[in-house]
Write a structure and sequence with these properties.
Blueprint (H helix, E strand, L loop, with lengths): L1 E6 L2 E6 L3 E5 H4 L6 E4 L2 E5 L4 E2 L8 E19 L9 E18 L1
Length: about 100
């Protein structure tokens, strides 16, 4: 059985036992040990259910394993022949690592 959940404008396909990295800003404080996702867009398996937009009564329970920072991305801006200076910035997103415990339908 698997589920498709929405967190922070992104969609994730999860199954029981999966490890997942989600943006920390969306979850708020990551001090809780368990977190419940109620934005379940689809539940798949033997009898799949899809919602419009969410499946009623479905939830996904996950355990917070820890906080870390994601990979660094480079933001580079340049315009040619415009007397425009080059700008180079880096960014690392704070993420929370989760383990999916159960999918409730």
């Amino acid at each position: 059985m698997y589920a498709i959940i929405r967190s922070g404008g992104k969609q994730y396909r999860v199954a029981v036992g999966d490890r997942l990295q989600v943006e920390r800003d969306v979850l708020g404080s990551a001090e809780e040990s368990k977190i419940t996702f109620n934005d379940v867009l689809m539940v798949g398996g033997d009898s799949p259910k899809s919602g419009s937009p969410t499946v009623e009564g479905a939830s996904v329970v996950a355990t917070i394993l820890g906080e870390t920072r994601g990979d660094k991305i480079i933001v580079f801006k340049k315009k040619r022949r415009k007397n425009h200076t080059k700008r180079k910035h880096g960014h690392r997103q704070d993420v929370v690592e989760l383990r999916i415990d159960s999918i409730n339908v």
